[in-house]
Amino acid sequence: MRFAVFHRALWLLLCTNAIAVYFASHSIRRLIVSTLAFSLLLQLAYFGSVLFLLWRARRAEHLGFSRQERPAIDQ
Asked: 0.90 cut: is pTM over it?
């Protein structure tokens, strides 16, 4: 996934979450807290996916796949 697409999707999710929380609670304080918590959760998920991709690449290297034989991860 290209960074621009990821960046737009991230902002779309955060804005959607903020709007939903505001309409549900009518509280700016809850909006800020929940948006910060949601962004932290998204960052943790992104970090975990990067670690998983690194682990998968190392495992493929350990099993003896060359760069040409390695399965495509994301194109």
From this structure: no
Does residue 41 lie in a domain region? yes
- With CA atoms as reference, report the closest residue to 10 among 54, 42, 36, 40: 42
The 3-state DSSP composition of the chain as helix, strand, coil percent (nearest 5) reads 75, 0, 25
- Give the domain range for residue 42: 3-62
Measuring CA to CA, how many Å separate 8 from each of 2, 26, 68?
10, 26, 32
What averages of pLDDT result for each successive group of 10 residues across the chain (75 residues)? 84 93 94 94 90 89 67 60
